[in-house]
Amino acid sequence: MTEAKRVDPYAHLMDLGRGALHQAIAAQRSALEYSRQFVEGDAAARPLRAQHEEWVRKALETLAPFYALEQLAREQLLKAQASLFELADDTLRNLTLHGVERGGHRSA
Known about the structure:
Layout: H1 2-5, H2 9-101
């Protein structure tokens, strides 16, 4: 009876090897399927990518005049602020000078 239960080491190794081979084949098939899906997905994505790039280009072309207007508005705002600061400075200077000419007291 012990003879019947004895496992042939060679047969056991062959079974393990066969199992590993089947797993390797399954992994290769799976990798090939993923590769096929990737290629198909990439081919499908190319027109979408091109369309997206076209939309971005058109959006930038459309927004360019608004960007130029914004820049112009910023420049005008800075000029207006500078003029207001100059006016305020001149006004304060004139008030101070008039106060000194009249003999007014300047507080330190």
